[in-house]
Each structure stands twice: as structure tokens, then as C-alpha cells.
Amino acid sequence: MKRFAFFPGCLIPARHPAMEFAIRTCLPKLGIEIVDLEGASCCPDPIYFKSKDKLSWLSVAARNLTLAEDLGVDIFTNCSGCTATLSESYHLLQDEDLRARVNLRLRRIDRQYRGVARVRHIATLVRDEVGYEAVAASVVRPLSGLRVAIHYGCHLLKPSRIMQVDDPNDPTVLEKLVAALGATPVRHRNWYLCCGKACQAEAIPSNMMHDLLGTVHAEHADLLCLICPTCFGQFDHGQMKVCQQFGEDYHTAPIYYFQLLAFAQGVPYDRLGFERQRFKPECLRRFEDATDPTVETCPTSSQTE
Amino acid sequence: MMARAKSNDDVVRVDFRFRRELARKLEGNLASYCYQCGACAGDCPAMTYSSGEFNPRDIMLKVLYGLGEELLVEDSILWQCTNCYNCHERCPQQVKPVEVIISLKNMLADLDIYPTVVKRIIETFETTGRTTPLSPAIDRHREHFGLPPLPPVPVEEIRKLIEPAPAEGESS
């Protein structure tokens, strides 16, 4: 088993524990051991606290990175916001002057940042450390015929000089991860758009979501797959608001990739917390015949195939 | 906008005091490299969906002229940025317009000017170390998935870290 520190952030553990459950269920089956980071705080978020004071933002991010350094492991994130903050901080702190300034702050709490723990979004981690074939091999319910639209969001890929994940103009990582489940990835015309959550003017994100959901709808996708809890909120609650505001009948259920993976690996539909979603991925029910009854709770050991 | 940058004799007067203050913020100095090509604007979703009202190229030009008074106001246009990083991706000069915009927001914070939502989330982080505070309902929801309660964050450490220290030359 390869060991990696899990940086769950704020939103998923508090608002979407079903996503955390899915991650903790999936990864051991893919040969990844999760190490919890004791004492981790908010990353801090790249929209609100970063807007107050970048040096404080960077110092708190550096503190979080030192927790993984202490354990001698690399970090994976499950939220695009945490990915943006921690990856950018890792990148910025390669500058020696800036690192010295931040270490001056860290000295107040007897910590020092060394720059040895890498940061990756969980989707990138699975691609690089597990591989698409091993993901496919873990699937007990191939999602054949399921049309899955993809939403990359912004911070998995950009800024590409810092993230170094994929071509931001023609990415493939999520398409291939979805295809590994036996489903058919669908690239809709507005695939590259932002979810708009950070924008504090109401008209911009709602017009943007209207356009984006319109192209997803036009492709007759069964689901909209994403990898960020903030994007999820925009496509679940936000989709309802767009329908009300513009009189549309959009109803494409959003789904966090690792819940879809957990389902494909055999976790029962009813264990995955979909009942809380405004738009529920009921289309998955038709694959339930191949249920693997061995998965009932968070496993502590893997059942690798 | 140009009219305000020009004096009566038609000479552009640049407010370097504002630019120097911005340059003290992390990556706030990068605007100096902007040559106004507009690559950022072409791929900006906030620009597309605000019909051009939000325009990162225009914001960079205001910075170059030192027109802080047009940007550092209540309900500033800066808050329309979606933080998508397309401008960072496109800029041939590596200006990182989104980072300059966030540095400008840091200047707004120095003036204690925030949108209400933003201020509330920042205060939650500063008092709890999280953007979503702990609650019994959250822990019950987690228990449903066999997950342990959320562990507390050592908030004292966070408070010590975010305390400004101008004497150490850290005041950004």
C-alpha cells in the first residue's frame, strides 16, 4: 500500500460526508492507504481569507503542509479550492525569500516549512499512483451505457504552470477516469466554464450556469460528474435556482466522481447519501443488480482484486 | 477613465504611491509587466457574462495609472472576479491578473471594506480555523456514514500565525 496524507478541508467533511465516506471506501481498494493529518485547519480558502491577507493565507497553508512533512508523506486533496491553495503555496514557497518570511511566522508556533511534501488533487493521485487500468479492475458494476457529462472546474488544471496536471485546453483525466467505470464520458460545448461560486455579483454566475446547464441538457447526459464540493453546490442547489429563474426544466443530477467510483465498486446506492441531493442520480439504480454485499461500512483493510 | 488620469495640460499623471502600496502585497507588483494585449479579457467568464462591465484588462490599466480610488471602493468591481485563473493561464507576460486582483482585495481589507458574505466567512475562519464551524448536527450526519466527529483545530496556532507583524517587515 502506498501511503498519502488526506487533506479533507472544510466543505466535504462538514457538508458532504458522503463524499468523504466514498473516498475512504474507494482508495484502499486501489492500494492507497489514507493517513489522517491531525491538527489540520482550513487550507485556507483561496477566495475569502486569501482576499484579506495573502501572507497570512500562505503562512496557514504552510502550517498545513508541515503536518504532512512531519509524517514524511505527500498530500492529496478532495476539493478544488484546497488544491488551489496548497498547490499554489507549495509553488510560491520555492522562492527562498518568501519561504524565509513565512518561516519567520511559523517560528511563532515552533514550526518550519521545508518544502518536501507534494500536493495533488485526488483525481490526479489516482491517475498517477493507481492508473486507469487498476481503477477499471476494481469495478464490479460496469456503468455501461451511462452518459456522463464532465465538469473539470478551474483549479484541478489551472494555472497549468503550477498544477502540471493536464492540458487545460484539452484535458482528458476525468474522461478517462469516467471511462474506466465503463460509462461514456460526454464533453458538452461549455465544458471549460467556471462554476462561478467565487463571483459576488449574482447575475454573472446565474447566466453562466444557465448556459452551462443548457449544453449539458442538450447532450442528454444522465449525470454531470465533478470533482469539487463547491462546483457540486452550484450544480445541485444552483441548478434548481436556474430552473426557477429562467423557467427551464433542467434535471441532470450532479455526482462527485468518487461517489460514482464507490458505486461502481459495489457500494449500495442507499449507502452513498444521494437522498440529500436536490437532483438525485436515480439512473444508477439500474446497475444495482450487481451489488457487492461485502461493503457495508468504512473498511480499514483493502480487498484488492 | 483616461480623463481622470490626465491633468489640464493633457499629461498623464501616474499615482505611483498607490502602485508602490500594491507592490508590497504578494504578487501585487506583477501588474507593472502588463502591456495591455487583452488576452486576459478574451477568455474571462466574468467579462463575458457581465457584458464587459468586469474587464481584467481595464483593471490592469487602472492599476498602471494608479487609479486606486476607482477600485478601492464599496461594492468594488473586483468582487465580480470568478477566480477561474483563465487570465493567469493566458497572460503572455505572466502578470497573473487574478493575483493582482486578490492583492487589490488585500488593500480593500486594509480599509476594512468587504462584502458581507466575505466578511462573515473570514470571521468564521479566524475564530474556528474552519470555514464551516463544528456542530452536533454535522457530527450526527457524519456518524451516519461511520465517520468520527470532526476534530477540533488548534485555533490558537492559527491566531498566532495570522497576527500581522510590521516590525519584522512582514506587513503584507
Can you tag this structure with a few keywords?
heterodimer; A: 305 residues; alpha/beta; Glutathione S-transferase Yfyf (Class Pi), Chain A, domain 2; Rossmann fold; 2 domains; 4-stranded parallel beta sheet; 8 strands; B: 172 residues; mainly alpha; Fumarate Reductase Iron-sulfur Protein, Chain B, domain 2; 0% strand
Quick structural summary:
The complex is a heterodimer of chains A (305) and B (172). Helices cover 43% and strands 10% of the residues of chain A.
Class by SSE composition of chain B: mainly alpha
Q: Percent range for helical residues of chain A?
A: 40-55%
Any low-confidence stretches of chain A, pLDDT <50, length ≥5?
A: 299-305
- Give the CATH level 1 class of the largest domain in chain B: Mainly Alpha
Strand proportion of chain B, as a percent range, falls in: under 5%
Give average pLDDT of chain A, whole number.
94
Largest sheet of chain B: none
Number of strands of chain B: 0
Residue ranges of chain B: pLDDT <50 for 5 or more in a row?
A: none
Q: Which chains make the largest contact?
A: A-B, 64 and 63 residues
